[in-house]
Amino acid sequence: MGFPTDFLWGGATAANQCEGAYLTDGKGLSTADVMTAGGNGVPREITDGVVEGNYYPSHKAVDHYHRFKEDIALFAEMGFKTYRLSIAWSRIFPNGDEEVPNEAGLKHYDEVFDTCRQYGIEPLVTISHFETPLGLQKYGSWTNRKVVDFFLRYSETLFKRYKGKVKYWLTFNEINVVSTKPWMAAGVDSDDEQTRMTVAFHQFLASAKAVQLAHEIDSDNKVGMMYNGHTAYPNSSDPEDVQATTDFMHKMLFYSDVQCRGYYPAYKLKEFERDGIVLPIQDGDLEELKKGTVDFLSFSYYLTHVVGKESPLVFTGLNGVKTGYKNPHLKVSEWGWPIDPKGLRYALNLLYDRYQLPLMVVENGLGAVDKVEDGRIHDSYRIDYLKEHLKEMKKAIELDGIPVMGYTMWGPIDIISASTGEMMKRYGFIYVDVDDEGNGTFDRIKKDSFYWYKDVIATNGENLD
Ligand code: BG6
Question: 59, 208, 335, 457: which could join 22 in a potential S-S bond, CB 3.0 to 4.6 Å?
Fold first, then answer.
């Protein structure tokens, strides 16, 4: 009973939100490097290149690039079995279209993986997490099929270089964000549905081919898809509210349908027919999608949505995260995100029922303002949030029999928020002394939750009450 003995406990970060060093060792600019800081309710801006006078949080972030040894040592102290991190594509191919990779970038991640291995930490690598080389803008980024080949060159470089060091891979972080924030997901700033669906098709194709390459290069490789765990409840038992919820979920789930099943679902093809959307399919592409289905499904889980017939696909909410109608049963975070631990068990069941694939929760956590008092951070609110979610995940394993491979809490060390670009929206077990303007000592401080999570891992989740 309880969590499996080989359960992968850990934490997750993304390069553009933690590394900083945005031009160090030959790195090129990425789409994340031209996003300014926003705030609670203030959207981030995308600028035309780096414009003097603006503050870009990814440029310094929390300097993980230079401090990864100290940070991974702290993860090891908590007992991490895995560390989910992403590789910055523009460190390896600075403009995205070079023939030869940047050795300094490759060497950096060699050191990161060696450090993980030294502590027995299994790296879980996201190949593309909300950053595309800015140099690919001249091709129209992911609207252009050429980018599929650039991505494959990049992926092949990683699979060959890190063979034996990395065996768990995710192709695209939250691929369904193409439908909500395409600049982040794909470096394409467009509201046009035809454009977004072209981008999604190219990413599906790139992912399917990368899955096959990963398996050919090392039969030990396991490649997952990563779904932004949209989960929605109907606003009432009115069948029309229920239908609106189904329609909403289809908008999101078609991404995992394609990547887990290897083909576009009928409901999506019908929608394309109605809306006149045409995919740029070439000979052999549909076979590639079939051959490149993923080995497991990973997802992020922070909140749930409520959907109703009046505004089925128009959502209200803060910070571009649109959660729909207010759920009277749930409290919300300081950033307006509904807190719904039970929804995690619901999401695990929904995804397992649909695909029968091993699942992994690769992001979950509470963004909150932390106060430092006498050099300590008493973050009982974070412990409560995480504990309740872990209890529900445990029920999904014990009571529902769902094979959950692991859990990587989001932002085990404080990092930049993706939606707002703020530093004050902190998730970590480890506090970083830096503010919203990038000022501070960058010192790391263990919060109360650090010791709590250490105990959770040491007891394999047995003491959650
Ligand atoms: C996920 C992303 O959507 O949510 C992360 O994969 C992101 O990159 C996380 O940081 C939490 O969101 P935020 O906006 O609070 O940082």
Answer: 59
